[in-house]
Each structure stands twice: as C-alpha cells, then as structure tokens.
Design a protein that fits this description.
The chain is of the alpha/beta class and 724 residues long. It is built from 18 helices and 30 strands. The strands form 7 sheets. It has a 9-stranded parallel β-sheet with strand order 7-6-3-2-1-11-10-9-8. Helix 11 crosses helix 15. It is globular, with a radius of gyration of 26 Å. The termini are far apart.
C-alpha cells in the first residue's frame, strides 16, 4: 500500500498546480511528426468480441477480417481500449499474446494500429479488492440528496483520483506501452476513452476541491464574499464548514465545482499523457478520443495541450437528417483546439443506439460523403465504430461496417469504394489547412451557469446535448446559420487574448465573464472588429454573481445600450413589420431584455403593445467597429437573416451564397500550397451548379474544370477541385 500513499502526495501536488494555473492549458512535450503522408481510413477492431464458438474460433475470424480490410483498402485500426480484464486478468498478471496476434496480423497486411490505454472499464478483481474506486455520483435535482454509489458492471464508474485506481492504471499503462513501444505497426496511443468526470463526488474529490478553494480564495471569508454566502446565513469561517456539493444551492459553488470537475479530467489525461510519453517510442503519437466536443465537465482546450493531435468521436443523423452541419460543428471545434488537423476516431458505420429504436442505416452515398465531410474540415483520419457488429449486450444495435452475419454488404462496398479513392487522392487532401474570418466564442462557464438558472423552461430539443438549458442550442443555431450560408467558422475561448485575426466575432449568451474578457471584446470592436452578441451577455461575473452595475456591465459602451428589466416570453412574439423578411418565421422566443439604446440604433422592435416599447435588436458603432446585440432568442430564420445581413455589411459575402440550398462548399489549402474546393450535395436529388474559382482538376475523376464550368452532383455526391 506504500505506492498508494506516494500517489496521494503526487496527486495533491498536481491538484495544487492546476489550482494555481487554472484555466491555463498544459504544455505538451514535443512529440512525433503527425504530418501523415496520406489519409488514414479504418475502423475500431475487437477480435476479442467475436463469438468464441464460431468455426475456427476468433483466430480464423481474424484472418478473414484482415483479408477483408486489405481488400477494401483500409489502412488503420484502433484497438485495445475496452478490455482491461484481458490485458490483466488477475492482479499483476499481464497477458499480451491475444493482442500480439492481432497486431502482427495487421502489420503483415500493411494496416497501422492505434492502441488505447484500457482504463475506462475496470476489471472485476479490482472492484472486489477496492470498492472505494467506484464513483459516488451526485443525484440530479436542485436540492441534491444522498450520493449515488456505482456498482460493478458499468463502464466509466470510477473515481479517477482514487490512489488505488491510479496505482493500477499506472502499472497497466507502463506495461502495455513498453511492450509495444518499438513495434512499427503501432503508430499512436489513445488515452482512455471518452473521458469525463463521471460526476464523482467521493470524499477524496471533495477534499481536493476544498484545497483548491483554499488556494484560490485564501480565506473562507473571501470565498463567502465572492459567493454571497451571507444569503440565508451560509457564511463560512472555517474550511471544515464547507458543505458537500449535493448540499448546496449556491450558484458560485456549483460553477466552481464544475470547473473543479473539468480540472480533474485535465489532470487525469495529462497524467496519462506523461506516462505514455515516458514509455512510448519516439515515433508514436498521443491522442485521446473526446466523446463529442463541448461537454460541460471537460475542458477540451486545456486537455489539448497534453496531446500531439486532437481526436473526436462524432455521431450524427442519417437518411433525411443528414446534412453535414453537425459534423462541421464538431470538426470546427476540434480543429480550433490546436489550430490544426485532427482525427475522427469514431463515427457512424451503419446504425447507432443502445436500443433498437434508432436504426436508420445511411442512404447509398452517405457513408462516402461523410468521410469527405470530415476531410474537408481538416481531419487526417476517419475511423468507424466499428468493424463488425457485436452479437450481444448493450451495443448490439450500434452496428459496424459488417452486420451480425460478418459478411461483405452494401456498407462494405461503399467503404471499399471510398478507400480506393483515397489511395489515389489522399496525398492531395490530407493535412488540409482551413482559414476562417469568423469565430464563435465558446464559454463553458456560461453553459454551466445557464443550466443552473435556465431561461424560459428550456428550448426545443435541437441541441446535441439533449439538455434544456438554451446555451448549447443557441451555439448550434448560430453555427448552423453560418454553415447554411457557406461561411466557415472557428471557435475561440475565454482565455483567447487576441481576436484580431477574425473579422467577425459571434458571442452567444456570455452569461459568465470576468471584466478582462468583456474589455477585450470591447477593445476588439473599438479597433475595427465586428461582434454579433446575444442576450444574457455580461450579466454575471466570474463567480456567477450578478454585476452590481447596470447591464450589460463593461459592455455598455461598446453595445451602446443598457437595460434594467427582462421578461420571459410566455408565447412567441413577432418583430414589428417583419423587418428581416422572415415571413411565418418572424418569431422570437423565451426571453426579452428591455433594451434602452444610448448610442445604438434600433434594428427591430417587438410587435406587442407592452414589449413594443423596447427594441429587440440593436447595432452600435464603437470606434472603428460595430456591435450588434440581440435582446431575445430569434427563430432560426431570423438568426440566419441577421448573420447574413451582417456578413454582407462587413464584406464577407461571396459567390458561395448563390449555390443551391442543398449544396455546401468548403475551402482549404493543401500541403502543396494549392487551394482545394469541396462541393457537397447533401440531398437525394441531382443538383447543378456553376464553379466560380480558378481553373483546376476534379481529383476524384481527374477532369479539368475551368472557372464558370457547370458541375453536376448526383444525390449524396461531391466534387473536389484542386486549383492549378
């Protein structure tokens, strides 16, 4: 048990360093070259999941799978992250033969391997020896309740700060990585799998939180002042009086706990990254598969500093719900984390879902178009989850390329077609550099704080999070409006010091912010930048306390307005005289701030006998720039109209706006310095369009294309043009 004590002291030091440095990013150790010579295209592969009583057993199935992969043209697989119990079936006994056999078979076929550290699903022997490893989860609800203890049988059910868990995880990682560090088939390591905080509120997590607060605030009195704990007489005078997370109603506490949860995830993955880097070969890269971007308990920006390259798992709608917009949202965020290329470690193969209630296999052409959608947004790898459908348990209906019969099928044929295209054109499209003039400010603090105090009872379930808070849906709405206008966007973060490389900055509901960030936004406008900002921005400070100056606080001068009142909207309202020509969609929802222009001009008013006294949208000239403010939640059509008008006004309109509505275009520069233009037809009907850029070659078919040429795209098809 001595190692556990050592680990406890190490973790305490790590916690303290995070507390001091938060929210700065970790600094990555220089890693290997990740400029892949061509596109990596493959799938997650689990030979260990195959039925053991099938003819010839798992070994025979491995031979068949490798032959099928090679024939299809796949060149990478991801393996090993899900089965700690096979790597270490008993405490201290490590087994490699089962994976050596698979790695060797892949190597002989010329298929590269990414291995995962299998730390997200603990083995039964560990659970029995150390039940304290289980996460004690905070129950949902305003007033909390008794913490919920996990039991064995669930994945991701551990307290990742537990000294026992860290001891066993470190031992496992060191053994596995050292075993494969010199294997040329293994090109990289994935840390854990879709890591989160798992809502752990164990005693060690709480004590760590207390020490973090001691370091940040200094005294209980200072914390009480920042959090306004004199409300209901909850002031603290000793740190021992700090209540547990499930026993508080303080919004300041809740926000700081959310930050602490993020820091715990960052520390855990940074710790794994340092271990892997110490043990891995110099040519092996390090990544982790974020389980979808923009989670509330994961600080993706901070984690990215520990990685050589970012990776994301992206699942999306299919059939008639397939339009590429959600993939673009996730890709734009992934690319923005390190301002470079990224990997897609999981995406739809056939159908997805933990039940049989969401079985919507893609239409012909959608799997192929999906691959190019990721590559057009800067991905260097696309892998499906997974190669073969599983014959039992929770993910029976989360199907792979092969169905349960394990035979070539419609999806396999489409994957093969795509792979062979990539063999020919991969060097021309890998490493695509995407440069945008528009950015969206993402505030995880605002997402969390708004969820504590949601407006209007929530918003329609268009947000990928499924949570009724409004922030995620608002971000997605604004990104989708840009996407439909064929305008690319990056993401920037509250820690971003300089927004000047962007011509337009979009700021959705910046509810939580320190004065410094609001002043940077004001300075950006004054220096000539343009901002589109929504309601609830500038309202509360970094401790989730409402500012005691008139809203929107330090933004008042740049916005040219103030307000003292706001109201929920019980029913949708229209804008007077339909100023943005939205027709039936001339509606606003949920929230209205009673904006009082001081220097700003009104763009639109509410069509209502009471609310009509105040403008719904204003715009202000400030210095050399402008700030457009939306005091309410606009319909999708109104939001698109506002952004379209602003883009035109500041000179970001181009010929891409004239494309058919089903067509989306994406631009970039390849490693040869040549401009690349992707044209996607996200519809089931043939479309025609006019190519409006310099003469080039359509890469898939090798045809010359001149400016003004007519292009015809079949249903769910695309064209890729490389300029001369």
């Amino acid at each position: 048990m001595k190692s556990f004590a050592v680990r406890t002291s190490v973790f305490a030091a790590s916690v303290l360093s995070l507390a001091v440095a938060a929210p700065a990013q970790q600094t990555a150790t220089p890693g290997p070259d990740i400029s892949f010579p061509t596109v990596l295209y493959g799938a997650a592969y689990y030979n260990e999941y195959m039925p053991q009583d099938m003819p010839g057993g798992q070994a025979a199935r491995l031979d068949k799978d490798v032959a099928l992969m090679k024939a299809a043209g796949l060149n990478v697989v991801r393996m090993g992250e899900s089965t700690w119990s096979l790597w270490e079936p008993e405490d201290g006994r490590f087994e490699y033969a089962w994976m050596d056999r698979v790695v060797n078979a892949m190597g002989k076929a010329g298929i590269k391997v990414i291995l995962g550290t299998p730390t997200y699903s603990i083995p039964a022997w560990m659970a029995h020896q150390h039940p304290e490893i289980f996460a004690e989860r905070i129950p949902a609800g305003m007033f909390g309740g008794k913490p919920v203890a996990s039991t064995y049988g669930l994945r991701q059910n551990m307290d990742t700060d537990s000294p026992a868990y860290r001891f066993y995880a470190e031992r496992l990682i060191r053994h596995i990585v050292a075993h494969y560090k010199d294997n040329p088939t293994v090109i990289g390591w994935q840390l854990d799998n879709e890591t989160g905080s798992y809502d752990a509120a164990n005693t060690d997590v709480f004590i760590g939180f207390q020490h973090y607060l001691e370091n940040k605030f200094g005294t209980p009195e200072a914390l009480s002042k920042a959090w306004f704990l004199n409300y209901w007489g909850e002031d603290l005078h000793t740190w021992e009086d700090l209540p547990r997370r499930d026993g508080t109603i303080s919004t300041g506490y809740k926000l700081e706990w959310a930050r602490w949860s993020q820091m715990r995830v960052t520390d855990f993955l940074h710790w794994q990254s340092e271990l892997v880097r110490e043990c891995a070969g110099p040519a092996q890269f390090i990544t982790t598969d974020y389980g979808g971007m923009m989670k509330r308990d994961v600080n993706e920006e901070a984690i990215a500093g520990s990685l050589d390259i970012v990776a994301d798992n992206i699942y999306h709608g299919t059939q008639d719900h397939y339009d590429g917009s959600f993939q673009a949202l996730q890709c734009d965020f992934s690319r923005s984390l390190k301002h470079g290329n990224f990997l897609v470690t999981e995406t739809n193969a056939q159908t997805i879902g933990w039940t049989s209630g969401s079985q919507f296999p893609p239409y012909d052409g959608q799997m192929r178009e999906d691959v190019y959608t990721y590559l057009a947004n800067g991905a260097n790898m696309v892998e499906y989850w997974h190669w073969a459908s599983i014959h039992g348990n929770q993910e029976t209906y989360w199907k792979g390329i092969l169905s349960h019969d394990l035979e070539p099928n419609r999806e396999y044929a489409e994957v093969s077609r795509t792979a062979h295209e990539l063999q020919a054109i991969g060097p021309h499209i890998v490493g695509l550099q995407v440069h945008n003039q528009v950015a969206i400010l993402w505030s995880r603090d605002s997402a969390n704080a708004i969820s504590f105090m949601p407006y209007g009872g929530g918003v329609p379930a268009r947000s990928w999070t499924g949570e009724p808070d409004g922030y995620a849906a608002l971000v997605q709405q604004m990104h989708k409006a840009l996407y439909d206008l064929n305008v690319g966007a990056d993401f920037v973060f509250p820690e971003t010091q300089d927004f000047s490389q962007y011509k337009l900055l979009i700021v959705p509901a910046l509810y939580i912010s320190d004065d410094a960030l609001l002043n940077r936004i004001s300075d950006y406008v004054k220096a000539g930048g343009h901002v589109v900002m929504t309601f609830k921005s500038g309202f509360a400070n970094e401790n989730s306390a409402v500012r005691w100056v008139r809203a929107p606080g330090p933004l008042r001068e740049a916005a040219g307005l103030s307000y003292q009142e706001f109201s929920n909207l019980e029913h949708p309202l229209a804008l007077k005289d339909d100023p943005l020509h939205a027709g039936a969609d001339n509606k606003v929802y949920y929230w209205a701030e009673f904006l009082m222009p001081e220097h700003a001009k009104a763009i639109a008013y509410y069509d209502h006998p009471f609310f009509g006294k105040w403008p719904a949208i204003t715009e202000n000239d400030f210095g050399a720039g402008t700030l457009l403010y939306e005091g309410t939640y606009l319909s999708d059509t109104l939001q698109a109209a506002v952004l379209n008008g602003e883009l035109r006004r500041i000179g970001l309109a181009n010929s891409d706006r004239q494309l058919p509505s089903a067509v989306h275009v994406q631009h970039g520069v390849n490693r040869m310095g040549k401009r690349i233009h992707y044209y996607f037809n996200y519809s089931g009907a043939e479309v025609n369009l006019s190519y409006s850029y310099a003469r080039g070659t359509e890469l898939i078919h090798g045809k010359e294309v001149s400016n003004g040429a007519d292009l015809t795209l079949a249903p769910w098809d695309l064209a890729i043009i490389e300029e001369k």
